[in-house]
């Protein structure tokens, strides 16, 4: 009805041409536009050029100036997306679908955030859209600076400004990366691995003190006595002092001194001047000589060890040999080291002489290497050479009292208790025995007596004839003298046994003549 009325009015010339044209466009409009474009709906020319369909993009950008700016600057979603180019807006944003239609057409699951001004990196990748984009707000309105989302998390309370990226990155908020060398206080040594809050305890990052003592006053073992110049002795790598003791004090720390810590000598942390530089000044309590040897400790000792380095032979003309070499000074020098000491064995060891006054020259038998070794006395010089078993016999086995008075050289004087003959063979032991071995005796009965051993006599042991109590040298040589008890004739045939018997066998008589 309305359309027919309009056509009639146009034919009759009763309506303006422009109004009629607009009314006709409205009548042929495909459908309502979205709510935000509703005020433009009255005139299609707001968005369309009747005679130039390609002008629609220009008309869109005239209203959407921010999009036009992004396209021109190559920024934002439209400026960075290479697919936009000269594409008509309507290709992506279709209108006339109704007031509640979605002309944006955003698909969050497929959206490529990398082509925006805010590519997602680090922890941002795992976030949902709603974590940054508020409901009802345009996506492009989401903040792009750190403080836009993390202002409440700013531990610095805004004191460092808004350039969060200078220290932090999206991977992890707590992992600050700041080049401290760009400040007036480069971090080196032990300062380098410290966390920021170790020094910036109140989260203050400007106008901090930079002197050592400002942070380490409680660590100052000197209690302020050494002033504020900590760097003169200490470095940032360690608290160990790197003080040049020789250059600064004239007293070089060498030997065992070089291993000491300051307080070994500087007992009081406030006492660093006027300390003695001579040995006695510090070591009088360690002086084993109790001052008797004076204060020239360096004559015998050095700074490496308290062990003596005194050349006894060169300084005293008395070489320390043998066991003397291992002695300590005080073993001999009971008083001052300048006291004159005896140089003979008897002078020091007289009271230990077990030989009494019988022997006075210790060096004739003993030597310093070992006092108790077998003496090197030449025994043959006293007329009794030590041979055989005598050579391995200790002195005290013969000289029981160690008073080496002259002893007799007869075997029986020492070996009477060992004489199995009971003295029956006299004292001439050497006739049968020798010092090599008591049991290794040799006696030639045929040559050394008037009774040659023949026949059965040759196999007899000595005691077979030489009975105890019978002096061997007075032994009778007749048969009957030894065999009277064996005489079956009971003496009827006289003592001439050898007239019938021979010494080969007593039981087999052999008649002679």
Task: Tell me what the structure shows.
- The protein is an all-alpha fold.
- The N and C termini lie far apart (about 205 Å).
- The N terminus is likely disordered.
- It is built from 18 helices and no strands.
Q: Main beta sheet: strand number and arrangement?
A: none
Helix content: 10-25%
Distance between the ends: 206 Å
What is the tally of helical segments?
18
Topology as a string of helices (H) and strands (E):
HHHHHHHHHHHHHHHHHH
Mean pLDDT over all positions: 81
How large a portion of the residues is in β-strands, by DSSP E? under 5%
Oligomer: single chain
Helix and strand composition category: mainly alpha
How many extended strands?
A: 0
Q: Label the overall shape.
A: elongated
Radius of gyration: 65 Å
List unreliable stretches of 5+ residues. 1-22
Q: What are its keywords?
A:
513 residues; elongated; disordered N terminus; mainly alpha
Concise overview:
This protein has 513 residues and is an all-alpha fold. Helix content is 20%, strand content 0%.
């Amino acid at each position: 009805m309305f359309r027919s009325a309009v056509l009639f009015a146009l034919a009759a010339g009763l309506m303006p041409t422009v109004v009629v044209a607009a009314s006709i466009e409205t009548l042929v409009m495909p459908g309502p536009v979205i709510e935000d474009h509703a005020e433009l709906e009255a005139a299609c020319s707001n968005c369309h050029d009747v005679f130039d369909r390609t002008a629609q993009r220009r008309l869109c950008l005239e209203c959407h100036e921010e999009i036009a700016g992004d396209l021109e600057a190559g920024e934002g979603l439209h400026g960075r997306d290479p697919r936009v180019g000269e594409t008509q807006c309507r290709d992506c944003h279709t209108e006339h679908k109704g007031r509640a239609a979605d002309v944006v057409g955003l698909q969050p699951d497929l959206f490529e955030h990398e082509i925006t001004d805010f590519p997602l990196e680090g922890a941002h990748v795992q976030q949902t859209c709603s974590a940054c984009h508020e409901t009802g707000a345009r996506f492009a309105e989401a903040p792009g600076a750190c403080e836009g989302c993390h202002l409440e998390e700013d531990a610095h309370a805004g004191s460092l400004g808004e350039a969060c990226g200078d220290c932090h990155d999206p991977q992890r908020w707590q992992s600050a990366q700041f080049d401290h060398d760009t400040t007036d206080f480069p971090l080196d040594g032990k300062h380098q691995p410290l966390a920021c809050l170790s020094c910036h305890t109140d989260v203050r990052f400007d106008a901090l003190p930079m002197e050592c003592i400002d942070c380490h006053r409680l660590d100052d073992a000197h209690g302020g006595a050494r002033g504020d110049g900590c760097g003169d002795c200490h470095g940032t790598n360690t608290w160990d002092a790197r003080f040049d003791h020789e250059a600064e004090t004239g007293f070089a720390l060498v030997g065992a001194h070089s291993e000491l810590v300051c307080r070994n000598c500087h007992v009081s942390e406030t006492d660093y001047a006027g300390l003695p530089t001579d040995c006695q000044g510090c070591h009088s309590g360690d002086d084993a000589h109790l001052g008797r040897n004076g204060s020239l400790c360096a004559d015998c000792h050095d700074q490496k060890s308290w062990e003596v380095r005194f050349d006894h032979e060169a300084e005293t003309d008395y070489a320390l040999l043998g066991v003397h070499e291992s002695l300590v000074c005080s073993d001999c020098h009971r008083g001052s080291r300048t006291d004159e000491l005896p140089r003979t064995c008897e002078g020091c060891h007289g009271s230990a002489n077990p030989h009494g006054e019988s022997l006075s020259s210790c060096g004739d038998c003993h030597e310093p290497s070992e006092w108790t070794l077998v003496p090197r006395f030449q025994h043959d010089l006293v007329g009794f050479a030590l041979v055989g078993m005598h050579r391995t016999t200790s002195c005290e086995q013969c000289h029981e009292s160690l008073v080496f008075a002259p002893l007799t050289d007869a075997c029986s004087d020492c070996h009477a208790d060992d004489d199995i003959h009971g003295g029956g063979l006299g004292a001439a032991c050497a006739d049968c025995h020798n010092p090599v071995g008591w049991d290794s005796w040799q006696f030639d009965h045929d040559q050394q007596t008037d009774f040659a051993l023949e026949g059965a006599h040759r196999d007899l042991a000595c005691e077979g004839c030489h009975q105890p109590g019978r002096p061997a040298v007075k032994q009778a040589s007749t048969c009957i003298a030894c065999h009277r008890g064996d005489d079956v004739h009971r003496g009827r045939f006289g003592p001439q046994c050898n007239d019938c018997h021979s010494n080969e066998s007593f039981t087999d008589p052999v008649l002679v003549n």
